[in-house]
Amino acid sequence: MREFQTARRQFLSSLAAGALMASASSAEDKPAPRTAAWRDEVGITTSSLSGHLAARPAKGKFTLLELPRILRDELDMRVIDLNTSALASYEPGYLEKVRRAADDAGCWLTNLKLNQSGLDMNSPQADVRGKAIAEYKRSIDAAGRLGLQWARPLPLKPRPDMKIHVASYRELCEHAAARGVEMLVENYGWMQADPQSVVKLIKAIGDNVTACPDTGNWDSQQLRRDGLKATFPIAATCDYKARALGADGSHAAYDLKECFQIGWDAGFRGPWCLEHANRDRAKLFRELAMLRDMLRGWQAGKS
After folding, report:
1. How far apart are CA 108 and CA 12, in angstroms?
2. At 274, phi and psi to the nearest 5?
């Protein structure tokens, strides 16, 4: 385990240097990063654990400090995509404990979803916009201390003024680059109705930004197919979303294997971060294991 921790820290140091060098290239010119350590990995988003993961110890729940061991021992996975609500604090000492817990369990913390409510980095009001950007920067600082590769601000439902939106994103990307973090664009809200939305926004932003397609967040089946075909070729990570599952793994909402196949055909090889919730912990873990085995089986069939 000590060798794993040393290798991981060396790898994260190289990411920080690489992020600064990457700022000289545009999103149009550079290929999406393919992190060898996470190739073919199936992981989890902490949003899947809503109702089970607590910022602080609570009866019947577990904390982020306990999650890496639970993920490894009970679900045989090691990639963790974080949500800001999962963090009990931004204090450096606490963040170091989180990072160490992941190291000790042989897990990877990859991403921080900035899902704070009430923030609007697209507001025409400078004070409202400034408050959002300041809070997002504070979260990006935490992502850097955790050694994460990516961070993603929360898209809103109304379509923004694109001039303001792109300028705000660029400010976050510049701040993140200095901390070895790359920003993500995820299809959500206003983006769900346009299959090219992620690609167009990344091109407009330019530097230190890449894609995180969410397989569930599209307004129709055809938009899902077209959106994933457009976005997976430039994707660095993926929210592999599943809604209600049948006992046999059936999924009425949309074709899970088709989503995988589109990603695979585009050259995407992970991490596939499961996003699926259930208030019953035992059922949730069975369903997450089912989804994990689906993805692993489909990948194995390609080798």
Report:
1. 11
2. -65, 130
CATH number for the domain spanning 28: value is: 3.20.20.150
Which residue type occupies 67? L
Residues 62-116: tens digit of each pLDDT:
999 999 999 999 999 999 999 999 999 999 999 999 999 999 999 999 999 999 9
Give the separation between CA 13 and CA 258, rounded to whole angstroms.
36
Q: Which segments within 132-234 are labelled E, that is strand?
A: 150-153, 182-185, 209-211
Integer Cα distance of 184 and 190 in angstroms? 16
Q: Which residue has the tokens 């530097």?
A: 207
Rounded-to-integer distance, Cα 102 and Cα 129, Å: 34
Which amino acid, one-letter code, is at 251? H
User: Which DSSP symbol is given to 234?
Assistant: G
Number of domains the chain is built from: 1
Q: Which of 239, 224, 231 is nearest to 275 (CA)?
A: 239
Mean predicted lDDT score pLDDT of the chain: 90
Beta bridge partners of 113: 83, 152
Whether the CB-CB separation of 211 and 183 falls below 8 Å is answered with: no
Q: What is the mean pLDDT of residues 280-294?
A: 98
Residue 118 clears pLDDT 80, i.e. is over it: yes
Task: Please give the residue range of the domain that contains residue 189.
Answer: 2-300
DSSP state of 77: -
Residue 8 in this model has a pLDDT that exceeds 50: no
Distance CA 76, CA 151 (A): 25
Q: Are strands 238-241 and 150-153 parallel, antiparallel or unpaired?
A: unpaired
